[in-house]
Amino acid sequence: MEWQDYLVLVVYFLVMATIGVLSMLRIKRQEDYFMGGRTFGKLLQTFAAFGAGTGSSDPINTARTTFTSGLSGMWSIMSWLFVTPFYWIAGVWYRRMRLLTLGDWFVERYESKGLGVAYTIFGLLFFILYMAMLFTAIAKYAAPMIGGDEVVLAGTAVKMEYVLVPIIAVIVIVYGVLGGLTAAYWTDLIQGLCIIALSVLLIPFGLSALVEKFGDPASQGLFDGFRIMHERLPDAMFTIVGTTRASEFPIHYVAIVALTLLLGAVVMPHFIATGGGSAKSETNARVGLVTGNFFKRFCTIGWALTALIVLALMADNPVLKADPDKVWGVASLELFGAGLRGLMLACLLAALMSSVDCYMLVCSALVVRNVYAAYVKEDASEKEYITLARITGAVIIAGTVLMSWVQMNVFKQLQLTWIFPTLVAAPFWVGMYWRRATRVAAWWTVGFSATVFFILPLLLPVVVPGLRDRPGLLAANQIVRTTVTRQAVAIDVAGREAEIAVWHDKVREWVENEGPQSEQSAIEKFGPCPEPLQQRDMVSNEETTGGTAVFWSGGVKPVDADGEPVNNVKPQPAGPPRQVDESTTEVVLQYPEGTRLRGFGMFKLDFLVYRLFGMDFTTKSNAMFATLDFPVKIVAPFVLMILLSLITRRNSKEVLDRLYVRMKTPVDPDPEIDKREVEKSYADPSRFDHRKLLPGTDFEAQRPTVTDAAGFITCFVVCFLIILLAIGVAMIGR
After folding, report:
1. Spatial distance between the Cα atoms of 613 and 309, rounded to a whole number of angstroms
2. Could you tell me if residue 572 is inside a domain?
3. How many domains is the chain built from?
4. Same-domain check for residues 180 and 66
5. Which of 205, 431, 603, 676 could make an S-S bridge to 437, C-beta 3.0–4.6 Å?
6. Distance between CA atoms of residues 523 and 503, nearest Å
């Protein structure tokens, strides 16, 4: 980057910090700090939901999965699409709660301060993990932008993320810790506009580069870039969902992820604020939450299209071949000039900071409300609570920075955040609608989920190390090598050139380290140099899938006598190839007889359920294995929660009456009128019973209103229109 780029970043950081300082002067109470006084309208609620839901990892993840899987890769982020209609309903929940944290809701619903602490622990762990992913994404982006993976400080080479991440953290602390939610929302408005710019900025530059490199700039325009993109990429890259055995995002995987996200999204701690709790009215809460999230879905199309353009343009780039997480950074470096690179980095920083500021405040609120006020000092002054919140926020950001330095795999981090909210999803959903749900059932469900899905998978291999070598637990799906023979297209030629460049780099590095006489050993290690390829040559693309361990997250690998992994044992054909069609053959591979195998990583305890039902794992694809990760984690907690609630003592009728009637009382934008309406509901808990969907039962769901139904249906229509838009954009120029 050049001085113009750094100037853009400095101006951006100064604006964010100024907003934080000015907002600090208006804060008097906890509600001001954590909820902005519940005064926000549709515009700020929209950009708050958009900013909090759009992190720096989202463009990076979408670009990475689209670069490797084609248009279907957009589902790494677009999986949230069909969750959005439910936000039309959920936005009202958070506003009618009239609470400062979701931990407060668990405390009140189950009459347990301890559950508030448990939820606080969940919230802290979730957000530290999630925010670390955002910082990781920034590091992946910034390295190629600034000129490499390392910078030299005081004569010492330091990894880029160790420099950039703390700087970003300091800026977030300045405006987020000082200014509270008001500062976060105003900066989210600015940063939301930056994110929208980020989503489309690379597209015209990429199309222009395609025309300049592969077309005729004198007679062709930007739209010819779309045609060139289609000429250079195979049709399979433009399918909306994966259809082959090797696909990362087949329809069943997309569907189960969407269901998991629906169950988990509503218990994410920040939804009490950005989900509508900080809005002035219920309408503002609904419109802001839904519109903000639909904005993100439109942006996802831009991210996916950008990745397809970059793939057509830079398939021969060895950096991207080695690490697709760097698609966005390399593209910005290659396509932008001075100033624009800094603007793109500022936009990506905006995506990170607009999420982190909100998450930090929510974590602070949980610690202050559900730990400090509940157990340490209930009668502390408002000033003391706010001071503690600011200190807590700074400590949380520091912990996030440390976590981001340790864990640097963006997509793996994202997948873990999908599963983690299932810890508390069942107690929330069941308790929201069923009066019979009990405190004992909630505790056992949370404990069961934490133990079976997270703690035991880590501890069992340590306590019982023999599990890793037990034959019955070393099952994996078939290793299948698929060979497709077809005419080479432009991207095949470019990809082969990248493979040759990578091969030469590896050999050169090996020779430099081992000496000139080691060239032959390098060839033995890395294989012969790939042959150059010309367009229309017949090319055989080999893709090996399978070998995914059933019970071990780190896989099943060949090991030596000491149990250490070995790389010189490769699976061999178990029989003759099978002709699938005229251009495709498949051969099943297996390790040589007598190969010693061992399981690595966490023990996937829930997969024992599938074995009890006699499931044949050998024929399942890798994507099906990923799909099977979810059902037990989704279903078991709900079954346990319901069964235990039926046999344990009910919670207090008085407490439940107050909670449910308050949740049914419409919010008035005038705080004084709203307070009187709530008091009226407390005096008559049966005030809204005539609206119950199932009168005379323990189910507290109300009949949907016309507004509920119309908004919900409209949102679903918009979801399908967005998918059609994604397909339409991808087909331009075909």
Report:
1. 46
2. yes
3. 2
4. yes
5. 431
6. 9
What element of type H or E holds 142?
A: helix 113-146
Q: Within this chain, do residues 310 and 181 fall inside the same structural domain, yes or no?
A: yes
* 654-696 per-position pLDDT tens digit: 999 999 999 999 998 888 999 999 999 999 999 999 899 998 8
Token match 């006020």: residue? 373
97 phi and psi angles, rounded to 5 deg: -60, -40
Query: In whole angstroms, what separates CA 88 from the centre of its chain?
Result: 21
Lowest mean pLDDT among 49-58, 128-137, 611-620, 667-676: 49-58
Q: In whole angstroms, how far apart are CA 628 and each of 189, 346, 449, 600?
A: 39, 39, 16, 19
Please list, in sequence order, all residues whose beta carbon lies within 8 angstroms of the beta carbon of residue 517, skipping any fewer than 6 positions away.
Answer: none
Least confident of 364-373, 473-482, 535-544, 611-620: 535-544
pLDDT the model gives residue 719: 92
**What DSSP state is assigned to residue 639?**
H
The parent domain of residue 223 ranges over 3-93+100-254+268-372+383-406
User: Using CA atoms, how far apart are residues 412 and 248, in angstroms rounded to an integer?
Assistant: 13
Q: What is the distance between the alpha carbons of residues 176 and 184, in angstroms, rounded to a whole number?
A: 6
Predicted local confidence at residue 40, as pLDDT:
65
Q: With beta carbons less than 8 A apart as the criterion, state whether 45 and 289 touch.
A: yes
Q: Read out DSSP for 389-436?
A: HHHHHHHHHHHHHHHHHH---HHHHHHHHHHTTHHHHHHHHHHHHBTT
- In this prediction, residue 467 has a pLDDT band, given cuts at 50, 70 and 90, of very high
Q: What is the pLDDT of residue 408?
A: 47
Query: In this structure, what DSSP letter does residue 105 have?
Result: H
For residue 151, the 8-state DSSP code is E
- What pLDDT digit, counting tens, does each position of 121-146 carry? 988 888 777 777 777 666 666 665 66
Tell whether 397 and 538 lie within a shared domain.
no
The gap between the terminal CA atoms of the chain, to the nearest Å, is 36
Q: Say what the pLDDT of residue 296 is.
A: 82
**Beta bridge mates, 40:** 279
Euclidean distance between CA atoms 126 and 166, whole angstroms: 20
| Mean of per-residue pLDDT scores for the chain | 80
Query: Which helix or strand (DSSP H or E) is residue 358 part of?
Result: helix 340-367
Is the same domain home to 165 and 309? Answer: yes
Q: Is the separation of the CB atoms in 91 and 360 below 8 Å?
A: no
The answer to whether residue 101 scores a pLDDT higher than 50 is: yes
Write down the pLDDT at residue 183.
59
What SS3 state is found at 504?
Answer: helix
Neighbouring residues of 216: CB distance < 8 A, sequence distance ≥ 6: none
- Please report the pLDDT score of residue 232 as a whole number: 82
| CA gap 143, 520 in Å, rounded | 33
Q: Please tell me the distance from the alpha carbon of residue 333 to that of residue 329, in angstroms, as a whole number.
A: 6
Report DSSP state, residue 563. S
Query: Residue 634 falls within a domain, yes or no?
Result: no
Rg (CA), the chain: 27
From CA 290, how far away is CA 85, in angstroms rounded? Answer: 7
